[in-house]
Design a protein that fits this description.
about 700 residues
Length: about 700
């Protein structure tokens, strides 16, 4: 029984198609014509009582079914009109007599007016509105998707809410796209109704005259039948067309059409009274319908006055309530001191945001989407790109203003502590100075916050000239976003906590469930894995290939290696990833260590209960650090990332030591570089000091 009910609509569509072939008895035709009119009224009422189009999302399909139903009844009625002497049931007969009123010419004119209203006004307008709505909805989809991603990244909505909003946007696009096509059905239905009406009239006259009937009686009989048939067809079609226009014009509303009309008209009492006064003035003019104008004007003036008094009363009640709350503190909102009397509310102050960014007042327009700010959408793009590159999704960034900051300042905090600060001028552009500018440009001297490059804040009208002189010109939003992105990259390892580690493992279960079940947490605990992943991120190594990391780490630990050696094994397995990360054009420019220096470092390795550490002598450390600093200048001239290439044995320990003095230096080992890369040593750290020899190339 349930299966039959579920397929009721499908069965009805099949039956409707059969109407085009199988003749219907006149009593059944009468019943179905009434059903058709009732169905059209029901659809019109539904479209007027919904607040948004998606509440009646079946409308495009329903429009096709009702049109097919109406055409099927038209064919059946035409069969009876032409074969039964113009009689096609009581409904058509009565409607025909009602519209003609004893005068066929008047009936024909009224019928044509109804058809033209539907075809020219309602159908054509609904078709155009549906076409524009479909185009605008599709054009707005990318912006709506980015807004959802921005709300999700800023923590305003949950993942489930974002999924529901994306689904709604997709349904809107599908609905308005379907409505764009469905309105063509309405237009075709109107044209077909005219054709069927003409066929009934002409065909009936021909059949009646060839049967020997009197011309006047034949004309009267078939005119009434034709007009009645057209009317019972066009009335539902007119209501369906009106419903089509109604549903595609529903945009921003809070309730049904009736509620919105009453609410919005009643909120403008002055306009209502002004209209009434104008009608009363017109009533005073000679040769005007005085009584009608006077009655209408009086009704509008009185109605507007009543509505205005009601609004004043509501406003007075609201004002009295506000005063009562001020005079009675117990009824007002609790003060800050009262709020924190509850000890549970104090705990809300202990929450620490993983990342947050505070802005001065002048920078709010860059962030606030209601003012056209694009900061959030740019952060969404950066998060996605960083996840693709590094395999880690950093948490949402809390953005808020701070009265304590200067109007043009911003602060970036990691876990509640300030890690970066900058100042930008919203109405200027930042011009990064090249090594040898072709000319001087006027501006306010400053330092680019992300990379420390000497720059100038220039006026927008000087932008083109600055680019001609070789300056790299950046807009204020890009300056701030670049600083934020570089800060996040630098501190990404601090953002990887236990829950994020578990999330990465859970994500890996989707593709490699057997590996995860075998390794985590039986061989590798979450704390160990977190430590390894943090170490990789800290040194700029992507952790995207979690499967390879887990496999290599598990093999190393089960073979008896300690955690530091296991990490080096993992880095070796990620050689292609590391090479791609740091190699440029098939070449890797590096600083190398002399064999004697490496031997001295190896002998400085000391092991105790806490593990192995580097206990380098002060003289050797000072000499090594000094030489690295000298060679760093060459990388700055080449605008490349400084890289030191050492053996695998000392890589981890040497990296920990050198990054304390040069945080931007990356230390790699030889087994982390693939064999197809040409290594070019632009400096060598020796026991005697930096050599002044030419650059040398080494094939890995």
């Amino acid at each position: 029984m349930k299966r039959i009910l579920n397929n009721t609509v499908s069965l009805c569509v099949v039956v409707v198609v059969l109407f085009l072939i199988v003749p219907l008895p006149t009593f059944m035709l009468d019943f179905l014509l009434i059903v058709n009119i009732g169905l059209a009224i029901m659809i019109l009422m539904i479209t007027m009582n919904i607040s948004e189009a998606l509440e009646f999302s079946i409308f495009p399909s329903l429009l096709l079914v009702t049109t097919l139903f109406r055409l099927g009844l038209n064919v059946s009625s035409t069969r009876w009109i032409l074969s039964n002497g113009g009689y096609a049931g009581e409904v058509i007969q009565n409607f025909g007599q009602l519209i003609t009123g004893g005068n066929i010419v008047i009936g024909v004119v009224i019928f044509l007016i109804i058809v033209l209203i539907q075809f020219i006004v309602i159908t054509k307008g609904a078709e155009r509105v549906a076409e524009v709505a479909a185009r605008f909805t599709l054009d707005a989809m990318p912006g709506k998707q980015m807004a959802i991603d921005a709300d999700l990244s800023s923590g305003l909505i949950t993942e489930q809410e974002a999924r529901e909003r994306r689904h709604k946007i997709q349904k809107e696009a599908d609905f308005y796209g379907a409505m764009d096509g469905a309105t063509k059905i309405v237009k075709g239905d109107a044209v077909m109704s005219l054709i069927i009406t003409l066929i009934n009239f002409v065909g009936g006259l021909i059949i009646g005259m060839t049967s020997g009937g009197d011309f006047n009686s034949v004309l009267t009989t078939y005119s009434i039948a034709t007009i009645g048939d057209g009317l019972v067809s066009q009335l539902p079609a007119l209501m369906i067309s009106t419903a089509t226009g109604m549903i595609v014009t529903r945009s921003v509303s809070e309730g049904s059409l009736s509620v919105d009309v009453i609410k919005q008209f009643s909120s403008q009492p002055r306009a209502i009274m002004a209209t009434g006064v104008i009608l009363l003035l017109l009533a005073a003019l000679p040769r005007t319908p005085h009584m009608a104008l006077f009655a209408g004007g009086t009704l509008l003036v009185v109605g507007g006055y009543i509505v205005g008094k009601r609004m004043e009363k509501q406003q007075a009640v609201k004002t009295a309530q506000d005063h009562q709350q001020v005079e009675n503190p117990e009824m007002a909102a609790p003060s800050e001191s009262d709020y924190f009397k509850d000890i549970n509310n104090v705990y809300s102050l202990l929450n620490v945001e993983p990342i947050e960014m505070e802005f001065g007042y002048s920078l709010i327009p860059l962030v606030d989407e209601s003012r056209g700010g694009k900061m959030i959408s740019r952060i969404v793009i950066f998060r996605r790109q960083y996840a693709q590159d590094m395999g880690f999704v950093f948490p949402s960034i809390r953005l808020h203003d701070a009265a304590a900051l200067g109007t043009n300042q911003y602060v970036i905090r990691i876990r509640g502590e300030e890690v970066a600060r900058g100042e930008i001028l919203v109405d200027y552009y930042l011009a990064l100075e090249p090594a040898a500018p072709l000319g001087e440009i006027d501006g306010i001297e400053t330092i680019e916050p992300a990379y420390g490059i000497p720059s100038r804040w220039i006026l927008p009208e000087n932008k083109e000239m600055a680019e001609i002189y070789g300056y790299n010109v950046i807009d204020p939003l890009s300056v701030m976003l670049t600083h934020l992105s570089e800060t996040v990259k630098k501190h990404a390892y601090e953002l990887l906590n236990r829950s994020e580690t578990i999330q990465l493992v859970e994500n890996l279960k989707n593709s490699m469930p057997e590996l995860v079940e075998e390794v985590v947490p039986k061989v590798i605990t979450y704390s160990t894995l977190e430590k390894v992943l943090r170490g990789l991120l800290k040194e700029g190594v992507p952790i995207k290939d979690m499967g390879l990391i887990l496999e290599t780490l598990a093999d190393a630990l089960t073979s008896g290696h300690d955690i530091d050696s296991a990490v080096e094994q993992v880095r070796g397995a990620l050689a292609r990833t590391i090479t791609r990360r740091f190699c440029q054009d098939g070449q890797l420019r590096v600083i190398t260590l002399d064999a004697e220096v490496e031997r001295r470092i190896i002998t400085s390795l000391t092991r105790n209960e806490q593990g192995t550490y580097l206990a380098m002598g002060a003289e050797l450390m000072q000499q090594t650090i000094g030489q690295v600093g000298e060679h760093m200048k060459k990388f700055h001239e080449l605008s490349q990332t400084p890289i030191i290439l050492v053996s695998q044995v000392i890589r981890g320990y040497f990296s920990k030591m050198i990054t304390q003095f040069y945080p931007d230096v990356y230390v790699l080992s030889f087994n982390e570089v693939t064999s197809n890369v040409q290594i070019q040593a632009i400096g060598n750290v020796t026991m005697e000091g930096p050599k002044q020899s030419e650059q040398r190339s080494v094939s890995s």
